[in-house]
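REVIEWER CHECKLIST
Item 1: Sequence provided? yes
Item 2: Single chain? yes
Item 3: Sequence as submitted:
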Amino acid sequence: MCARLVSIVSSGIIASAFGTSDAMDACVLAGVIPNYILNVVGASFNAALIPVYLQVRKEKGPEEAGRLFSSVVAMSLGLLTLVALIMLAFAPILLPILGSGFSPAKLALTRTLFYILLPTTVLSGLITNFGAILNAHEDFAIAAIAPSVVNIVQIIYLYSVVHAWGIYGLAAMSVVGNLLQLALLTWGLKRYRIRLWQGWSGIDENLKNVLKQYLPLVAGASVMSSTALVDQAITATLGSGSVAILNYGNRLPTIITGIGVTALGTAVLPYFSKVTAARDWPGVRRLLKTYSRLIATIAISITLIIVLLSHWIIRFIYQHGHFSAADTNIVSLVQIMFILELPFYAVGILYVRMISAMQANFILTASAAINFILNIVLDFVFMRYMGVAGIALATTIVYVLSCGYLGFMLYWKLRQIEK
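Item 4: Structure as written out by the authors:
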């Protein structure tokens, strides 16, 4: 919660400094590809690693688990570096496609900011790996507070030398913040005497088990994360400021999911992994029912509050400096469209974590493919009538349908196992 509150403060200060300007549009779009690489290559390792890591640690001991972790870090570092270099080479082709509605000058700015932000791909990949192992040891505090380091660095910059370096400095501070965040997580791992680098142990049976789960997750994440690329590319055609508006409108819903939903999903994955490793399927059903009801009740309550107070919230956080009253009106509507997804996203995350713990990640791959197609169709349908807000509404409908699909498939998988 502390980390997300710092993020809100940072977001408000950024809005005051840059508003919905072309510079902010360019900065948001420049970060789309690094985030995509991270979600596909880096973050997928977590869901694949934790269940196997805990099983190896329990059955073969900490030393063997440490070797597995070192191998995963080495592989993650190599893959992220390779993909980042490939994206660096193809940036002149990809960025004009994503920013098809941008002017030549705006596109040139986007390309420069992309080059500045690209190192965060590798850094964030290592951050997710280190945080995953801390979570596996049920030490959640350091991994949870670490992202605030990036926001604190940005706030210091915005209150000091922003007029000298402008949007370029904001992008550079993201890189600096990620370096400091990685240092904090490294310190956290050393408290558990976990060796970060033991050399490459080869593709042994343990790593094969991780890769067996990882490859379907990568396939699913590559499709699912592509929805963000599609959303940004379509939004870029809607005129100046549209990309920034979509980003601002989604900031608070993202923060809320980070405070509650993602935190809960992170916390339950190791526990779910232990329950499934013990093959306590009646216990799994009880956990799902209990958490689903609790999460849905809380999420619906939060959603209603945000819908009612959306305009006031946006005005309070953002309407300063270069962020106008007209910006507040459209961003508050976008925020409402996004926050409607919360109950379905929350319950869906619970299903995703249980599916990962059961090592049935092929279900997630199929879900991602369905969501990707739906998102493209719904984006084009709703943006014709509601502009940027229509793209947000399309995302919400995708999560509604995805939650239903994941729930159905999860209980189908449980029935298959129990037979």
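Item 5: Key structural point noted by reviewer: The mean pLDDT is 84.
Item 6: Recommendation: ____
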